[in-house]
Design goal:
single chain; globular; alpha+beta
């Protein structure tokens, strides 16, 4: 059995990822005022983009981090054409 396989991530543009993160954060009552940036970065085993939380209430930090982690598990930044 091959345990080294990683799940296939859906390719998305930076703007699509930004919209998905914004929508997901907005759906959670504690995370509605979170300010963030989506940043591309060199490819690693974890992915090729990350989210920088610029403003987040202390009560919302855990939830916002979990929401972002779930999205990072599902999407990768599509290669520029």
């Amino acid at each position: 059995m091959d345990f080294d396989r990683r799940p296939v991530k859906t390719p998305a543009t930076l703007e699509e990822i930004r919209r998905r993160v914004a929508y997901a954060l907005d759906r959670h009552p504690l995370c509605r005022n979170v300010e963030f940036d989506v940043v591309s970065m060199p490819r690693s085993h974890k992915g090729n983009w990350t989210v920088t939380l610029r403003q987040v209430a202390p009560r919302a930090l855990w939830e916002a981090s979990e929401i972002v982690a779930d999205i990072q598990d599902a999407y990768e930044l599509a290669a520029a054409a």
